[in-house]
From TrEMBL:
This is Peroxiredoxin. Signal peptide: none annotated. InterPro entries: KH_dom-like_a/b, OsmC/Ohr_fam, OsmC/Ohrsf, OsmC_Ohr_Peroxiredoxin. Pfam families: OsmC. It comes from the Bacteria.
Length: 155
């Protein structure tokens, strides 16, 4: 077994001068950074008084699931001789907010649109989504189902 460690910095930038003196007195804006990487400006979802022009944690979760799946998928396609020439995903997720204000995701659905170089690759290209899901570090770390509705095209 091999352990990998990750380190980021999350810095709240939403103090409007009154700190958290009241629920409505502060912004939910924050920055996510890591050494030698581009800064990500984030906030909460607008439903929770966030800035709609910035990424929120729920969108970041979807992007983590989708990115991890894509990277494993491309890896397995390259090993299987499936030549992918284009890949786009349009993930969706459902988060249920509970009466007490807490909540949790109940599912994420990936909608990858994959283009392969030959028609003979379509079946294998479709199959490999399941294998990618089984290996994805993020998918193996969450407690909700991740479904796939792939579309495979030929160019």
């Amino acid at each position: 077994m091999k352990n990998h460690q990750y380190k980021i910095t999350v810095r709240w930038t939403g103090n409007t001068g009154k700190g958290t003196s009241s629920y409505r007195e502060y912004e939910r804006s924050h920055e996510i950074s890591a050494e030698n990487k581009v800064l990500i400006e984030a906030s909460s979802d607008p439903a929770f008084r966030g800035d709609k022009t910035k990424y929120n944690p729920e969108e970041m979760l979807l992007s983590s699931v989708s990115s991890c799946h894509m990277l494993w998928y491309l890896h397995f396609c390259s090993e299987a001789g499936v030549v992918v020439t284009d890949y786009n995903d349009f993930p969706t997720g459902i988060m249920t907010e509970l009466a007490n204000g807490s909540g949790h995701f109940t599912e994420v659905i990936l909608h990858p649109e994959v283009t392969v170089s030959e028609e003979s690759m379509i079946e294998k290209a479709t199959e490999l989504h399941q294998k990618a899901n089984e290996f994805c570090f993020i998918a193996n770390s969450v407690n909700f189902p991740i479904k796939h509705i792939p579309k495979v095209l030929v160019k």
